[in-house]
Amino acid sequence: MTDFFKDIPEIVYEGTDSSNEFAFRHYDPDAQVMGKRLEDQLRFSVAYWHSFAWPGGDPFGGQTFDRPWFGDTMDHAKMKADVAFEMFRILGVPFFCFHDADVRPEGDSFAENTARLQEMTDYFAQKMETSKTKLLWGTANMFTHRRYMAGAATNPDPDVFAFAAATVKTCLDATHQLGGQNYVLWGGREGYETLLNTDLKKEREHAGRFLTMVVDYAKKIGFEGAILVEPKPQEPSKHQYDYDVGTVYSFLKDFGLENEVKMNIEQGHAILAGHSFEHELALAASLGILGSIDMNRNDYQSGWDTDQFPVSVPEVAVAYYEVLKAGGFTTGGTNFDAKIRRQSLDPEDLILAHVGGMDVCAAGLKAAAAMLEDGGLERMRDERYAGWDTSDLLGMDLAAIAEKVEREGINPEPRSGRQERLENWVNRFV
Amino acid sequence: MTDFFKDIPEIVYEGTDSSNEFAFRHYDPDAQVMGKRLEDQLRFSVAYWHSFAWPGGDPFGGQTFDRPWFGDTMDHAKMKADVAFEMFRILGVPFFCFHDADVRPEGDSFAENTARLQEMTDYFAQKMETSKTKLLWGTANMFTHRRYMAGAATNPDPDVFAFAAATVKTCLDATHQLGGQNYVLWGGREGYETLLNTDLKKEREHAGRFLTMVVDYAKKIGFEGAILVEPKPQEPSKHQYDYDVGTVYSFLKDFGLENEVKMNIEQGHAILAGHSFEHELALAASLGILGSIDMNRNDYQSGWDTDQFPVSVPEVAVAYYEVLKAGGFTTGGTNFDAKIRRQSLDPEDLILAHVGGMDVCAAGLKAAAAMLEDGGLERMRDERYAGWDTSDLLGMDLAAIAEKVEREGINPEPRSGRQERLENWVNRFV
Amino acid sequence: MTDFFKDIPEIVYEGTDSSNEFAFRHYDPDAQVMGKRLEDQLRFSVAYWHSFAWPGGDPFGGQTFDRPWFGDTMDHAKMKADVAFEMFRILGVPFFCFHDADVRPEGDSFAENTARLQEMTDYFAQKMETSKTKLLWGTANMFTHRRYMAGAATNPDPDVFAFAAATVKTCLDATHQLGGQNYVLWGGREGYETLLNTDLKKEREHAGRFLTMVVDYAKKIGFEGAILVEPKPQEPSKHQYDYDVGTVYSFLKDFGLENEVKMNIEQGHAILAGHSFEHELALAASLGILGSIDMNRNDYQSGWDTDQFPVSVPEVAVAYYEVLKAGGFTTGGTNFDAKIRRQSLDPEDLILAHVGGMDVCAAGLKAAAAMLEDGGLERMRDERYAGWDTSDLLGMDLAAIAEKVEREGINPEPRSGRQERLENWVNRFV
Amino acid sequence: MTDFFKDIPEIVYEGTDSSNEFAFRHYDPDAQVMGKRLEDQLRFSVAYWHSFAWPGGDPFGGQTFDRPWFGDTMDHAKMKADVAFEMFRILGVPFFCFHDADVRPEGDSFAENTARLQEMTDYFAQKMETSKTKLLWGTANMFTHRRYMAGAATNPDPDVFAFAAATVKTCLDATHQLGGQNYVLWGGREGYETLLNTDLKKEREHAGRFLTMVVDYAKKIGFEGAILVEPKPQEPSKHQYDYDVGTVYSFLKDFGLENEVKMNIEQGHAILAGHSFEHELALAASLGILGSIDMNRNDYQSGWDTDQFPVSVPEVAVAYYEVLKAGGFTTGGTNFDAKIRRQSLDPEDLILAHVGGMDVCAAGLKAAAAMLEDGGLERMRDERYAGWDTSDLLGMDLAAIAEKVEREGINPEPRSGRQERLENWVNRFV
Ligand SMILES: [Co+2]
Ligand SMILES: [Co+2]
Ligand SMILES: [Co+2]
Ligand SMILES: [Co+2]
Ligand SMILES: [Co+2]
Ligand SMILES: [Co+2]
Ligand SMILES: [Co+2]
Ligand SMILES: [Co+2]
Questions:
Q1: Which of C102, C173, C244, C359 is catalytic?
Q2: Predicted ipTM?
Q3: Which fold has domain B27-374?
Q4: Partners of C229 in the beta sheet?
Q5: Is D99 a catalytic residue?
Q6: Tell me, how does this one assemble (chains A, B, C, D) (predicted)?
Q7: CB-CB under 8 Å, A279 with B410
Q8: Contact yes or no for B333/B45 (Cβ under 8 A)
C-alpha cells in the first residue's frame, strides 16, 4: 500500500440525501437497471494516462503535479501501478485502460520497450489477481515519441510504419494476456500538418493495410475482444484521417473491415468534428459499428480537446439513450478519457473528479433507461414515419412515381415536427 | 434586349496594366494553359439563383434588390431569362446552372410546376441557339417550399418523397433536353433539426434508394452527364447527411454508387465542415469522385454559408492545383454559387462581382499550372515517400514485422517535414 | 376571443409528478424563493416578434406557418394582438416585449408608421387594462427594412440616422405610454460587412451620439425605466459594434454613459461571441451594468443565432446564480427571445415551447437560490482569496515589492483550484 | 561563431526572378516606401522563444528538436544567445524580442532568477555592441512556471502577485538597460478555468493595480518606450481578461490608462477572438492605442493558437494598410511571434521560415503603400460618408429630429455598398 490516497475511504453509495463529498449520490452498482446491475450497464473504466502519467502541462506551461512515481525507472512504473490499483479499489471501478507508454518507461530500442512492457504486463497480471478491476482495453501510444511526428501507419518512412506495427503487436499481446475486452487504435498523428508534403492516397492505403494486419493478428492469437477505432477530426494533427464516424466508416468499407472493426466514440471528439455526441452514437449504431465510449466532454468555448469529466446529466442521458437503444454495451464500456484540470493538484481532486463523473453517468443512464422503458419517444417517432409502413414507393422508379404524383395530384401538407414537445418530454426524465 | 445592364460593355481581356474596372486583367479565354484554352480549363458557370432569383434577404432583413423581373408570372420568368442571357453575353461565360424554382414561378400542383418548367426549358433552348452559353448543370430546388421542411428524399412522409422524386424526374428531363453536362443534388433539408424525432437509419436508406433511382433514370433516358452530390455539413438543417466528401463516400459505398456518382465541392461548405477546400478536393480526387466545383468562399469569421465571390489568388491557386493534378475538369467546371452582398444594389455590382471572381480564378489556375509544370512540389513529395518504392512491408504480417524490427534494430530518426520551405516555394508562383 | 388556441387551457402548476403536457412541473408562481414570489423573481416575458410575427423562413426556405393574422392591414395587426394576449393569459406571463415593426404594418412614410404605432399602442393599452401582462420592454426594429441595410445610427447616410432617431423617439413614447419597465437597443445592422467601405471611427462616434440622445430623451419625457443595450458579435452583420459586454462597456465609458445604460444579455449571443452566458452575466454584474436577460439558447453545433427555448436546467441554474448573486432583477426580467422551430407548426407547439422554457427556468432559478442559500460556493471562493484580506501589496510600488520578495524569499507554492470538487458541489443542487 | 547554421549565407535581396531559396524576392531593406527605407517601415523582429527555446512539443507529443543549447546551465544559455545573434545576422533583422525565461535557466528563487537575468542582459548588451539588431521589446514569462498556474497579477494568492510584480520589475530593468523600445505584457494565465472558483471583480482590480504599477515604474526609471498589452481571448486559460482590443480598452478606461498603454496585436489572437486582424488594427487605430504587431497567423481550421509564419500576401497587405494609414510604426514593429512546425527539424527550416515570412510582409506592405498612395479606397470611403460633412443632425435632440423627419418627409433610399467593386480594386494591388 502506498500512502498517496491515505485518508480517502472506499467510495460507497449513500443516495441523493448525502452531502458527503466522498460518496456516490447516484451510482449504486447493484441497482437493477433494464435487467442488469448498474455496474454492468455502465462498465466504468479509468484511463491510466491522464490520471497517472500526465504531469499537468499545457502548450504554455509545464508540470504542475508532484507525484512520487514521476521518473523513468521500472520502480517508478511499479509505484505508479500500485497507486493506480489503489484508486481503482477506492472507486470500485470494474475496468481500466492503458497505453504501453503509460505503464513503462521509454526504452532505447524496440526490444527494450518490449521487455519493459512484458515486465509491467506481468506485474499488472499479478495485481489483477486480487483486484476486481479488469482491462477494458489496451492501446499503443504512437503519437508522443518524436519518431511518430509525421504519422505511425501513415508515415512517409516505412521504418516508422514497421516500428509502429511491431509496437502494436506487443500491445495486442499484452492486452490479450491481461484478458482485455477490446483493443483501441487512435491515430493522433495519422493525418497531416500540410497537404503540400502529403500523399493522401498513399497514406490512406497504408492505414488500410495496417488496420487489416491488426485485425488479422488479433484473430491469429485468438484475441476475442473487439478492435476499435477512435475518431477525432484534428489535434494534434491539423487534419486527421479518422475524422468522425462517417469518415471512418467510409474507410472501413473501402478495406472490407466494416464487420471487423467498431468505434470508440469520445464526446469531445464529436464536438470538435462539429457533431453532437448523440449524433455520432446514433450514426454508429445505425451502421452497426458502435463499440465503446470515452465519456469526457469538451468545453464548448474552447477549440481544442479539453478532456474534462462529464458534469451535465441531461447531456449524458441522451448519449446513454442511444447506447441503451442499441442494446447496451457488450465488450465496450464507459471510459473516462478525462483529466483533472492542471490546477487540481491534490490526491482528493483525482478521486472526486471520478466520483462526480461516475455519479453524473449513473444519473444519466438511469434517466435514459426510464425514457426507454416509458417508450414515449419511440412511439412518437414511429408514428411520424408510419406512412412508410404501407408505402410501395421504394419499389418504383422515378418515372412511375412521377406518373403517380401527377395522376393522384399528390401535394403533401407538412406536419409539425414537435421538437419543443419532445424536448419537454425528455426533461421529465433528466 | 432589356436595358438592365444598359451601358455595360462586353468584358474583354486587357491585361494587368489595365485599370478599367470593366475588363479582365487575368482572364484571357484564349490563352493556352496546360494544352487547353483557359476558357476550357476553367469552364466558368453563372448560378441563376443567386444572381437573378435572390431578393437580398437575410435572417434579419427583407428584400433589398429592386429588379424589374421580380414577380410570379411567366412573363416575369422570361424577362429574368432575357436579363440572365444578357449577363452571360457580357461576361462571355461558357456555362450556367439553374434549379427549377429559379426559372419558373411556383405552381399550385406538380402538374403545373412541370408545365411551367417545360415552357421555360423550351424558352432556354431557343435562347441557347444564339448564345455561346451552355448548361453546366441543372438541379431541383427541394428546400425552399414548406413541403420539404422536414426533408425531401428523407422526409418522414412518403408523399413528400414521391413529390421530390417526381420533381427530380422533371428536372433531369429539362437538364437532358438542354444538353446539361451534369445533374446535381444538394440536400439542404436531408438532415435533421433534432435527433429526438428522427429515424436516422430509415432516412439514410430512403436517401440511398432515392439516389439509386436518380442514377437509374438518368441511364434510362440516355443522359450521359455526371450525377453529382454536393456535400454540406449543416445549414439550413442542424445536421445534414451529406456532411462532407468522406461522409458522402461512405454513403455511396453502402449503396454501391461509388462509380456512378461524383462530387460537386463548394469551398464554403468545406470550411463549414472544418476542412480546407483543397482537402476536400484532394480527398475526392484520391477516391476517384471529383466532379465539379462551386467556387465561392465563406467568410472565416462567420459561422454560416456566406457564398461570396472568391478574392484570394493564393487560396484559389492551391484548389486548382488539386483539380489540375487530377487531370482537370471533364464534365465539371467552375460554378460561382456566389451572391453579391445584399448591399450591392446596382447592376454594375452584379457584373463586377463576376469579373473579379473570374480574374481571381484565372490568376489562380495559371499559378497552379505553373506549379505543376515546374514539378518541384511533386518531386519533393515523391522524395519524401521514396522509401516505400522498395519496401516489402505491405506484404508482411504483424508478427513478421515485429520480428524484423527487433532483429534489424530498426529505430527510425524523424526527417524534416519542410513545411515552411514548401510554403515559400508555392509563394513563388502565386 | 379568437379560436386560435381553442382547446388549450390555462397552464397551472401541478408539480413534478404530473405527466400533463399542459401543466407546469416546476413553475409555481406563488412559491417563495429568496424572499419573493417565484413569478417576481423570474419576471417572464414573451417576445412578440418570434411568436407572432415570424413566418418560419430561414435563409434557404420560406414561410412555414399559416397564421390567420398574417397580412398587412391594421385588422390583421389587431387580430395578432388578440391572439398574443390570449397566449399571455394561457401562460400567465407577467410581461411581454415588442418592436414597432412586430405590431403594426409597415407604412409608406415615417408619419404613417407613427400613426399606426400610436393606434396599436392605444389598442395594447386598452387590452392591458384587463390583462395581468405588463410591458417589460419596447424597442425599435431598425434592421429589417432595406433602408437600414448599412446601419441605422451608424449609416453613412445622415438621412437614415435621422429616420432611425425619429423612429426610436416614437418607440420610446409608446413604451412610456404603456408603462414599459425598460427600453432596449439591439444594433443588428450597427456594424459592417466589409472594412473596405467603413469608417469605423466615424460610425462609432455616431453611435455614441445616438445613444446619448436616447438617454436624454428618456429623461426628458420622464421615462423611469432602464435603457438597455443588447450585445451581439455578428449576424446579420459580419461584425457588430456591440460585440459583447466588455466591448459595449468600453463604448459606454467613452461616451460617459456607464451609469445611464445597462445590458440586456442573451445566452445565444454570449455563445456566438465565444463566451459562456454566465461569463457575460458575471462580467456585467461586476461592472454594475447587468439589466435584463434574453433566455434563449444557441445550438452549440450551429454557427448562427438559433434562438431556441432553454432546455438545460444545469445551464440555466448557473446563469440565475449570477443574477441572484447580483441582487436579482429590478426593472429587468427573463425574456424568451426564442422561436419555435420552423417545423413546429401547431398552436400547441407555441404554448408547449413556452411551458417547457418556463419550467426549465423555474427549476434553474430554484437550484440557484438553493446554492446561494447554502453558501458553500461563496465560502470556498472567499477562502481562496483570503490572503488578500490582510495583504498590503496594493499600496506598494514595483520596486518595493521586488525588494520585499527578495528579502523575504517569497517563493509561493500553488494551491489546488478544486474545479471538479466545485462542479460536484453544483451538481448536488441542479 | 557556432556552426549551427554553418553553410547558410547572409540572406540578400535578389528580386522576384530569383529562384534561390536563401534570398529575398520582395524584401529589399533599402527600397524607399512612403518616405522611409523598407527596413524602417517593417521593423522586423525575431521572437527568441519560439525559435530558440521551444523544444517542439505539443499537447500530444514531446520534444522533436535537437539543439546543442538545450540544457539548464548558463553555458547553454550563452550558446543559445550566440546562435540567436548569428540568425539575426543571417537574416539582417533590425530587432528581436525576449522573455526572461527564454534567455536564462529557471533558478530556485527570485534572487537567483534576477542574478541570471542580469548576467544574460550583460551578455546581450555586449553582443549588441557588434550587432545591428536592437531590442524591440522585452517581457516577463508569467505563464510557464507552475506558480502562475492560477494567474500572475490575478492570482488568488498575493504572494504570487508579489513574485510576478518583482519579476516584471527585473524584466523592465533589463529591457531598459538594453534600450528596448517597448515593454509587452501578455496575460496567458490572467483569466480563469472556471467561474466557480473565480472572483472576477477582484481579479480585474488587481490586474488594474498591477498595470498601473508597471506604468509608474517605467516612468520612474526613465523608460521611454511604450507599454503594450497583447490581447488574446483564451488559451492557455479557458477565458482571458485581455480578450480583444475592445475589451482591453474598456479595462484601460476603467483604470485611467488609455493614454499610457497601447496594444500589441497578433493576427492569430484576433482570429481566435472571432475578429479579422485588420479589424483589431483598425479598432486600435481609431482608439489611438495601436502600438505594435505580432505577425503570425492562425490556421483557420484549428481552434487553437498555431503561431505560424505568414504566407498570404493579400491578408498581410490589408493589415499593413491599417498600420500605414495610422501613420506607420513609431516604437512598434513587425514581430514574428511564430514558430516553425514541430516537424521542421533542420537549421535551414528556421532560416527559411523567416525568409518567407519577411518576403510576404515586404510584398504586403508595398501593396498597402501602393493602395494608400493611389488613394482610391479612401476617396470611395469619403464619398460614402460625404452627407455627414454638411449635416446638422449631431447637434439636435430626438424630438427635433423626429419633427424634421416628419416635416421634410425624409424617407431615404439605400445606396450600394459596392463591396465586390472595392475587393476588385484591392486585388489590383496585391
Ligand atoms: Co479527447
Ligand atoms: Co479518447
Ligand atoms: Co454555399
Ligand atoms: Co453550392
Ligand atoms: Co439571438
Ligand atoms: Co435577444
Ligand atoms: Co499566439
Ligand atoms: Co503574440
A1: C102
A2: 0.98
A3: TIM Barrel (3.20.20)
A4: C185, C263
A5: yes
A6: Homotetramer.
A7: no
A8: yes
